[in-house]
Each structure stands twice: as structure tokens, then as C-alpha cells.
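User: Here's a structure from my thesis project, written as C-alpha cells. My advisor, Dr. K., wants to see whether a designed sequence matches the one we expressed. Can you design one independently, without my sequence as a hint?
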């Protein structure tokens, strides 16, 4: 399930991030640095060197916004977060169809992370570039996503996806992976739906005992399916 989370970052935070990234000079390197030999042939973009100071500063901003966002927590059920990366596509750049690597090594801790959830946080005004749509294959065929600056999309990391070629302007984004408490995308989707339904019942002031049962069911399913 593809879940869009508008305004993960407000306009001021996006502007502050963009100022750092746009000024990063030599820290921008070939995107194939993190692609692995299987993904490298279809990847044509630039990335911020994940060992650079600018990467660390920007990672902290995104990670703290993710940790505080209830919809992200509910959708991804995060256990471990791979330090967010930043990429840039200028005219002609693209990332062809691929599935993200299954296991990554966190460069800061050396610890392995299983990529269950992929995230893309858009950092460019969508009117400022053409192309650059994130497309992923889902149950209903190919879905296209192009969101506003500061908006996030999360989707199962086992989905086939691509970034279409840029035909005008520049697309800057942040991307990351999450090892979820709940490995299976279908199980995560059930918990997300259940959580949303419970929130709506809370707002509607629905029957207390029924809500208690549903909240208990949510947590008992989470207990059953989670691994830490
Ligand atoms: Ni990808």
C-alpha cells in the first residue's frame, strides 16, 4: 500500500534543507555509490555523500520529523531507520525500474537493516520540473506520484518502481528505508487501516467497550506480528 503523508516538513524546514543541499558542492557524488552492482546500470542521478557533514545535518532534521509524525509511525511501524539519503536529478537523469536492495548496512553503526518500507520525501516544488515522477507497480497497475515539497510517500520496499526521466528543471528529494516491526506489507496495511478506523471512532465518540476491544485487538495483532 502506497501512503502519502502531506507536509512532513513545513515550508521553512524545506527551505533550510534545500539551502544546505544546494550549497553542498563536492558532497554531491554519482548516485551509483549506493546502488550495488545489480541496480547501478539503471541509476543515473546524483547523491549527497552519506559520510559528509551536510548529509549528517540533513539526516538529523528528517529523522526527527519522521519520529514525531503519527501517520508515518502508524504506516511504517518503524524499528530501525537507515540514515536518510538525498538525491538530485537534473535534465535527462532517471532511475529505471528496480526493486530496492533487501538488506543494507547502516554506515554509521555497521548494523544490518532489512528494508521493509521505502520512503521518498519530495524537496522540490513540482511546478519547477517536468518528469521525475515516482512510479510503482501495485495491485492496480502502475501508480504515479509527484508530491509537493515537504510531502512524503511510503511504500513497500519490495515494490518494483522507477523515477521517470527529468525533461526540465531539477528534482531534489530525500529517500530512506525502514526496518519495520512488522515485516509483511499486507499485515502492516491491516494494522494501518485498523488504527485509522479506531481514530475515527474515537473522534465520533463511539461505544467505549467496542473501542476498547478494537484497541486491544490492534495491540494483540501488533504483539503477534512484531519482531524486534
Ligand atoms: Ni528505489
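Assistant: Designed independently from the structure alone:
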Amino acid at each position: 500500500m502506497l501512503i502519502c503523508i502531506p507536509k512532513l516538513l513545513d515550508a521553512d524546514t524545506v527551505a533550510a534543507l534545500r539551502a544546505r543541499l544546494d550549497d553542498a558542492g563536492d558532497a554531491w557524488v554519482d548516485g551509483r555509490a549506493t546502488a550495488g552492482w545489480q541496480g547501478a546500470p539503471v541509476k543515473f542521478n546524483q547523491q549527497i555523500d552519506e559520510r559528509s557533514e551536510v548529509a549528517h545535518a540533513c539526516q538529523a532534521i528528517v529523522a526527527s520529523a519522521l519520529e514525531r509524525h503519527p501517520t508515518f509511525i502508524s504506516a511504517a511501524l518503524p524499528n530501525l531507520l537507515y540514515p536518510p539519503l538525498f538525491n538530485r536529478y537534473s535534465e535527462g537523469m532517471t532511475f529505471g525500474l528496480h526493486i530496492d536492495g533487501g538488506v543494507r548496512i547502516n554506515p554509521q553503526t555497521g548494523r544490518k537493516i532489512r528494508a521493509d518500507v521505502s520512503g521518498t520525501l519530495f524537496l522540490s516544488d513540482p511546478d519547477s520540473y517536468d518528469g521525475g515522477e515516482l512510479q510503482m507497480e501495485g495491485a492496480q497497475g502502475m501508480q504515479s506520484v509527484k508530491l509537493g515539497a515537504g510531502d512524503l510517500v511510503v511504500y513497500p520496499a519490495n515494490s518494483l518502481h522507477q523515477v521517470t526521466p527529468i525533461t526540465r528543471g531539477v528534482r531534489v528529494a530525500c529517500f530512506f528505508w525502514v526496518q519495520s516491526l512488522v515485516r509483511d506489507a499486507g499485515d502492516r496495511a491491516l494494522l494501518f487501516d485498523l488504527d485509522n478506523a479506531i481514530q475515527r471512532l474515537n473522534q465520533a465518540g463511539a461505544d467505549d467497550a467496542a473501542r476498547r476491544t478494537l484497541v486491544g485487538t490492534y495491540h494483540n495483532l501488533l504483539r503477534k506480528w512484531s519482531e524486534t
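When you compare it with your expressed construct, this may help: The first helix runs from residue 11 to 22.
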